[in-house]
Amino acid sequence: MCRIAGIVSKQLLPEDIRAKVKTMCAAQQHGGPDDEGIFSEDNAHTVFGHRRLSIIDLSRQGHQPMADAAQKVWITFNGEIYNYQDLKDELLKLGAQFRSATDTEVILLSYLQWGTAAFSKLRGMFAFALYDSVNALTYLVRDTAGIKPMFYFAQNAVLTFASEIRAFTAAGIITEKDPDWPVRFLAFGHIPEPYTTLKNVRCLPKGHFLRWDNTSSTYTLNAYATIPAKDQITNIDGVLQLVQESLTKAVNRQLIADAPIGVFLSGGIDSSLIALLASRQKKEQLKTVSIFFNEKNYDEQAYQRIVLDKIEGESFLHLVQQHDFETFLPQIINAMDMPTTDGINSWFISKYAHDDGLKAVLSGVGADEYFGGYPSFSRINYLKHLRKIKPSVFSAVTGILPDHYKKLSYLANDHYLADHLLLRGLFSPGDIAQLLDTDSKNVQNILFDIDPLPEMNTYNKEHASWLETNLYMQNQLLRDTDVMSMAHGLEVRVPFLDEDFTNAVISISAAIRFNSSRPKKLLIDSFNKLLPNAVWNRPKMGFTFPLQQWMTAHKEISNSQLYKGKLAQSTIKKFKNKTMHWSKAFALYQIQAHV
User: Fold this and answer.
1) Strand partners, 138
2) Domain check: are 448 and 570 in the same one?
3) What is the number of structural domains in the chain?
4) Domain assignment present for 217
5) Which residue(s) pair with 319 in the sheet?
6) 43 and 191 belong to one structural domain
7) Do residues 365 and 428 share a domain?
8) Share of the chain above pLDDT 70, in %
9) 120: phi then psi, degrees, rounded to nearest 5
10) Measured distance CA(494)–CA(471) in Å, rounded
11) Residue 248 falls within a domain, yes or no?
12) What's the angle, vertex CA 219, arms to CA 214 and CA 224, rounded to 5?
């Protein structure tokens, strides 16, 4: 797990490119505190930079950027390849020779053996750049789940890439803001892919690679990931065994590390299951990190203890209080890289994991999206009925809807993003227009400038799963987890998003995968002998902090006089009177300096 950066440009002098890439790496040092490296090829006008967080092969042999023995191909790599040993064995049989025990070298030799077909063979979380000196090509590649970030700027015969947006501004490459980012932020609560806060800086789509021709300074975007076509599995006994075996395999191979590794344990179903499975493999070597609160409605110590009593290894428990939130809030906002209404919980748990001596942890992200753990899986039925109403009706009533129903105005747009924003959005288009002093039509144009997807009108649980996986999890949970953990030099692994486990899950009939009476019933039934009854047979909490209470007590967040405009001030007053969710207040708090 690392941070990477690079520039390919015929317009800049080699020494200028090197200086900029070094600056980009320095801006991302927190994500790679163990080592740094620069590769420069003056004739190719190419420079790669790397900041290393050592997890596999802690020796100098893991130094990056790395090349094969003949220096035909160079790589700067962020992430982990969990099946690297299997690929290495296959390559050894084909005659490949290795000089290190790293997964990085496996990527290099896989590319030399199979070309771009190698990308689909990788199982893991990754974002890397490859320079093929023989063919004068540069590749940017991102994993199939979009766990690791890859931002790029490709214009005016220049290719620039980095793991964080701050790297572009630090090096003075792109400083102009995207004027539309505040609209997207107030609608989504984050900046959705492929957009960023910087003009013309984009996020590489998951499961894709960018192919840059160093000679012509042109590029193409290509998908390398394909969903395997399978018959839907309808045999319940076979499904239970499939979930057991595939998740166990995912957890076991994501425990591979030459540095201390642990598990985030919140006390909920997902993290408890990951901890129990990991304990089978690591036993006394496993470490768990948990957070608890004085606010009893949010405290899950009792459930954490039930799991801890069943596993070996050292457990770390941390109390987080109001004054901790207020003390660290400036650091949390700085760590965000781009504004978000989430990530506070990830920042704290990552800080404590780092303080406890861990370099890598396993997280339960993904289970809710795959097995129906969110309220949206039941609310999708209401959306199905609402979509039978003509969009023109919602256009007509937009200006007269009361606060609680204002988001219905999104349904004036026949677009899958409108469905998502009704279920999870923050502010309505009209309110966003008022908050930013712009036109409501302009807001709509910005939000729905992506072409609608075909066959996105089923409005069943599979539809809800697609929305949660590809929008909420992709744009918010994964990005916030990555940036907050790397702010502390910590790697977070997500077994539920393992490629093979994902392929197994999507092969299961929806009638079995989702249950109307109990969220995640299939997951619970698959591990009924392992998962304690008390952990799952209770109301869902999620990894939640008492932020409504803490932000209300925060002198700046709750001070309506510090906000610009009547709507912003009235929203904060409602928040302080406990009639508005904290996420809206937090969004307005972050955006004040930009309006």
Assistant:
1) 131, 212
2) no
3) 4
4) yes
5) 292
6) yes
7) no
8) 96
9) -75, -10
10) 17
11) yes
12) 115
Q: Is 11 in a helix, a strand, or coil?
A: coil
Distance CA 329, CA 324 (A): 8
What mean pLDDT value characterizes the chain? 92
- What pLDDT, on a 0 to 100 scale, did the predictor assign at position 396? 79
Tell me: do 476 and 589 sit in the same domain: no
3-state secondary structure 83-140: CHHHHHHHHHHCCCCCCCCCHHHHHHHHHHHHHHHHHHHCCEEEEEEEEECCCCEEEE
CATH number of the domain enclosing 116: 3.60.20.10
Same-domain check for residues 567 and 538: no
Look up residue 514 and give its two tokens: 């989702």
Residue at 378 is within a domain: no
Distance CA 485, CA 30 (A): 10
479 vs 341: CA distance, rounded Å = 12
Task: Supply 556's token pair.
Answer: 């700046």
Shared-domain flag, residues 358 and 479: yes
Q: Tell me: the pLDDT tens digits for 44-71? A: 999 999 987 765 555 566 688 999 999 9
Measured at the alpha carbon of residue 433, what is the angle toward residues 431 and 439, in degrees to the nearest 5?
A: 145
Joined together, the tokens standing for residue 276 give 């129990």
Model's pTM, two decimal places? 0.94
Number of continuous H segments (helices) and E segments (strands) in the chain:
25, 17
Element (H, E) at 81: strand 73-81
Q: Do 331 and 248 share a domain, yes or no?
A: yes
Residue partners of 54: CB distance under 8 A and separation at least 6:
34, 35, 62, 258, 259, 359
pLDDT band at residue 36 using 50, 70 and 90 as cut-offs? confident
Mean pLDDT value of segment 512-530:
94
Query: Containing domain of residue 431, as a range?
Result: 388-456
Q: Which of 426, 456, 486 is the last residue of a domain?
A: 456
Q: Is residue 446 predicted with pLDDT exceeding 90?
A: yes
Q: Which residues, including other chains, have CB under 8 Å from residue 259's CB and lie 6 or more apart?
A: 54, 55, 58, 359, 360
Rounded (10°) angle between helices 344-355 and 478-486? 40
Is the domain of 319 the same as that of 403? no
d(CA 431, CA 193): 23
Give the domain-ending residue among 159, 193, 223: 223
Q: Within a domain: residue 147?
A: yes
Residue 13 tokens read as 């002098």
For 354, residues 6+ apart whose C-beta sits below 8 A from its C-beta are 488, 489, 490
Per-residue pLDDT at 178: 97
pLDDT per residue as tens digits for the range 458-479: 899 999 999 999 999 999 999 9
- Could you tell me where the DSSP H helices lie in 398-546? 416-424, 429-435, 440-447, 461-467, 478-486, 499-506, 510-513, 521-526, 533-536
Length of the chain: 595
Distance of CA 381 to the CA centre of its chain: 27
Q: Please list, in sequence order, all residues whose beta carbon lies within 8 angstroms of the beta carbon of residue 590, skipping any fewer than 6 positions away.
A: 185, 333, 339, 341
DSSP structure class, residue 402: -
CATH code at 535?
A: 3.40.50.620
Whole-number Å distance between alpha carbons of 450 and 445? 9
Strand partners, 142: 127
Question: Can you say how many angstroms the Cα of residue 324 is from the centroid of all Cα atoms in its chain?
Answer: 25
